[in-house]
Amino acid sequence: MRVMIAGGSGFLGQALTKSLLTDGHQVFILTRGTQTIEGAQAVQWDAKTTNGWGQLVNEMDMMIHLAGKSLSSWPWTAATKQAFHDSRIIPGLLLAQSIQQATHRPGIFVQASGINHYGLSGNLADESTPPGDDFLAQLTVKWEDATKSVEELGVHRVVIRTAVVLGKGDGLLGLMALPIRLFAGGPLGSGKQAMPWIHVNDWVGGVRHLIASENARGAYNLIAPTPTSNAEFNRILANVIHRPYWFPTPAFLLRTLLGEMSVLILEGRFAQPKRLTESGYRYQFPGPREALVDLVG
Predict the structure, then answer these.
(1) Which of 61, 119, 185, 267 is the most exposed place for a label (fewest CB within 10 A)?
(2) Cβ pair 157, 148 in contact under 8 A
(3) Residue 35: alpha-carbon gap to chain centroid
(4) Which residues share a beta bridge with 108?
(5) Residues 140, 130: Cα–Cα separation, whole Å
(6) pLDDT digits 0-9 by tens, 149-163
(7) Exposure of 228 by Cβ count < 10 A (0-12 exposed, 13-18 middle, 19+ buried)?
């Protein structure tokens, strides 16, 4: 199978690319930089036009849209928030346009999205839950809508609403563990808010499972099946790395330091991967303890 990935040079793109290459697939990575993955073919693009790569769409069996500026970029100024929007929606519209113009269209299109689609609070959400009205939720709505038109062209589109992906190579988990390693670990704010997470192996496994399924269509939550609060996650992390768990970080302090970005860690709605589990996917790391033991234990 020939696969084109926009955003393939990022942490998730690299993990998925390596998995596909291992199984003998050909991977073409749309990139604006010079970073390459051994075995994959780098294809230059500016994420604004189809010049130099549009003709390759005719040769693809599948396209994947993972492009988007990281939400961990700080501070969240008006310009940063606009970059969150533009780096997701403009490439999505462009990829959809390239498929429309192709004489031979790929059979599958995978569209990235976020688990924050469901808003910052409420009951346990699944894929049927309507989107929230906050900035992050509405960003996912626009992100998903950017490529919805490919469905009218007969392309099977799968939307992956992804939680925080934990892995050894992205640095995020190390940053999360740093206060605990410095003996200053504890809940953030009340600690009752959701900590949406998934092990990188299960993220890759979930994506591979969906693209191999002939019946996969629409949205799927890529999140661990065990709902986990911020306090519970940090308590387990402290236990795994043999550190005390005691100092809560006041919510007002985090809001002062991080501004609007603080919603990423102080708020969050619990969600479940209902459609993914119903499709038959079996998690390698369903709970936080086994995931954290594998990654940092």
Answers:
(1) 61
(2) yes
(3) 20
(4) 62, 156
(5) 12
(6) 999 999 999 999 999
(7) buried
Rounded to 5 degrees, φ, ψ at 126 are -135, -170
What is the CATH number that goes with domain 2-165+199-222?
3.40.50.720
Q: What is the pLDDT of residue 157?
A: 98
Is 242 exposed, middle or buried, given 0-12, 13-18 or 19+ CB atoms closer than 10 A? exposed
Using pLDDT thresholds of 50, 70 and 90, give the confidence band for residue 84: very high
Q: Is the peptide bond before 75 cis (omega within 30 degrees of 0)?
A: yes
Q: Please state at what angle helix 230-240 crosses helix 172-181, rounded to 10 degrees.
A: 70
CB contact at 8 A, 240 and 296: yes
Please count the other Cβ atoms lying within 10 Å of the Cβ belonging to residue 34: 8
**CA terminus-to-terminus distance, the chain:** 36
Query: How far apart (Å, rounded) are the C-alpha atoms in residues 86 and 75?
Result: 17
Q: Which two tokens stand for residue 254?
A: 């985090």
Element (H, E) at 90: helix 78-101
Q: Read off the pLDDT band of 38 (50, 70, 90).
A: very high
For all residues of the chain together, what is the average pLDDT?
A: 95
pLDDT at 40 over 90: yes
Sort strands 164-166 and 197-199 into parallel, antiparallel or unpaired: parallel
Best CA proximity match to 273, nearest among 143, 125, 167, 168: 125
The pTM assigned to this predicted structure is 0.96
244: its two tokens: 């005390």
How far, CA to CA in Å, does 177 sit from each of 18, 45, 163, 182? 26, 36, 18, 9
Check whether 101 has a pLDDT greater than 90. yes
Backbone torsions φ then ψ of 42, nearest 5 degrees: -80, 135
User: Can you tell me the distance from the alpha carbon of 237 to that of 244, in angstroms, rounded to the nearest whole number?
Assistant: 10
**What would the mean pLDDT of 168-181 be, rounded to a whole number?**
85
Domain ranges across the chain: 2-165+199-222
